[in-house]
Every structure is written in structure tokens, then in C-alpha cells.
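pinned: reference chain
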Amino acid sequence: MAKAETRVPGEEGIWVFLLGDLFVFSAFFLVFAFYRAEQPEVFASGRELLNRGYGLINTLLLLTSSLFVAMGVHRARAGRAGSPALFLCAMFCGLGFVGIKVLEYSEKIRAGINFGTSDFFMYYFAFTGVHLIHVVIGLGVLLFMRSAAMTPELAQERIVAVESGGLFWHFVDLLWIVLFALFYLVV
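pinned: its C-alpha cells
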């Protein structure tokens, strides 16, 4: 029996990018934890003003989109049809996330809640806003992945590019899970 080739998925550069992004978000999370410890009442009252239902729906949308991406990458790697449709489904989930986040932001702004309301909301808008930018970029990445997967027989470099896009999307999903826990759940 031949031994299967093992390799790290994606390009080396995507791993460097993701590691750098991880360091930036880790710094965000440490700053958030520090100020939450300094002002527990401000952060607790801010958290109560968030709509946990929106946060949960967004979490489910991104988890579902990551499932579609994983299935699409698997199909593309195996040379099987269907990955473009799966990437399109992931894009619809991502667009749903963006729509709910815009709705949530607009409700907060209409209620008079903004960056200057409290440290909690300054961090909420800043960190979830940076994440939202990642989602929008990720939607462009998903569009590229869909286009790249339209060719039935993908060249090796195209597979690596599709894998790299999938890694970025999974990273965006992982960041949201941490943000959801920090802002919507943690006491």
C-alpha cells in the first residue's frame, strides 16, 4: 500500500498572514480583557444591550459557511464537481452575516449607542468592525475560490490557492467565535 502524501494545506504565505492576524487579534483580546477587569460594571451593562439572538444567528451563519467551504475544498481537491455551488452557499451565509451585523449596528446607532458611549462599545464597534472588514474581504476570497473551482481539473497551484482561501475563511470564522464569546456571553 502506497503511503499517502502529507502536506500542510495552502500556501506558506497564507500561514504567515494568518499568524500575523492572530497576533493582532490576540492583542485586541488582551486589551479587552484588561479593560473588562478594570470596569466590570460598564462591560456587564454594555453586554446586556447587545442582541444575543443576532450574535447567535451570525455564529450559526459563519459555522455553516465554514462547513460549505470545507466541503467545497474537499471536492475541489478530489476533482469532484460541486465545489462552486458550495462556495456560493458559503457566500450567501457570509452575506447574511454582513446584513445582520449592519442591522445590529444601525439599531445601536439609532438608540444613541456609538464609539463614545462607553469603553465596552468602543471595543465592540472597533473589534467587530475590523472583523466585518475581514468578512467582506473573505467574500471576495470566496468569489475567487468559486471562480477557480469552475475548471473541472484544477491545476495544483489552483488547488493550493483554493485551500489558502478556505484557511482564511475558517480563520475569520474562528475570530468571530472568540468575539461572540467575549462580547455576548462572558460575564
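why pinned: The two ends are 53 Å apart (CA to CA). The chain has a mean pLDDT of 92.
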